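Entry 14. Ran structure prediction on the chain below.
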Amino acid sequence: MDTIYATATARGRAGVAVVRVSGPQAWAAATALCPNLPPPRMAALRRLVWQGKLLDEALVLTFAEHASFSGEAVVELHLHGGPAVVAAVLRALAAQPGLRLADPGEFTRRALENGMLDLAQVEGLADLIDAETEAQRQQAVRVLSGAVGQKVDGWRRDLVRAAALLEATIDFADEEVPVDVSPEVVALIDGLTDDLTREAAGITAAERIRDGFEVAIVGPPNVGKSTLLNQLAGREAAITSEIAGTTRDVIEVRMDIAGLPVTFLDTAGLRDTADPLERIGIERGVARAKAADLRVFLSDGRPTPGLEMQTGDLHTLAKSDQTSRLVGRAVSGLTGAGVSLLMDEIGQILQARVVSAGTLVRERHRLAVGAAIEALAQARAEVVRPDSRVELAAERLRSAVRALDALIGRVDVDDLLGEIFASFCIGK
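Output, structure tokens:
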């Protein structure tokens, strides 16, 4: 492979910038800048010199092949983070034969190809880099640690055991097999089906942790929806006015609620109107509110046409600062009264919805598990029928193995790799 290099830290001025070099000529390229490289995994301060000119005094780390992130020989140069310093070092590397700038995600792709990470761990790493909340971080770390691969290995062992039992009956079809293997095979299939079904059920919750929830604030015009959104955002995210129908488009504010990513939606005031522009805004608001994970109905006694409360939605009295007769939940977007209690309640509701989140977190995972469950059902049907067709059952079990192997990239998944690695930065 080519030897690649790139900055592994963000561009711009910083205290430290890291330049990573990976590939067969990594150590030779670093030696051209500082002849006395430190031993592997031992950091040392070195002067980087190119063509007689001092580039920087950097902390240098080397990693041997099969003992680095990418699985190749790697050198990391921890430079002073000035843009000019980084640019000078990159020019010196570019001038050396056999070196080229890395493509987006190429270091991680090499880690996958060299067996340092499986495909699910690669996705976990991408999610960890993008994590904005504590729940996202915890979920990404769990996937990156190899939890998916460990589960797949366990499922795969049971599948291989079941297939081996069936194939033994095929191999000795002309002889008397002393034990009926069907009960054990069916038990293995049923246990696997239960495990996979539970995992599939938790994917929706895991997707919400990764992608975020939507909470719509709905109610009649001038009930205080935009004022409440501004109170939540801590800034003037939405225009507020005494004129009814001010909000036409759906306004979004993303927040961290109880460690979960939540987007609050300020929708147009719901009422019957002859204004065609306002009517379009109301229709859009109703559509987004219906699709949201949770709706907060602000009320001042007027009806909310076009939208009904669903199980789990919240109802709260608006503008509590303007009335002394408070019954039940009440908030004031102007003063902030009751807002923290409302946020706590929203956080509790959303946290309860992600309790079932499992290890699998993506639609790709759902499809793979679904294919495995279907193959298991077909295998079971072949085993339990009176004229048991063990050859077909064994083939269905092999199909289930292939579906699970696709989860962690053990089978051909080249069509997925371009999409996955396109989301990575150059230095990762």
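The mean pLDDT is 84. Will compare against last week's run tomorrow.
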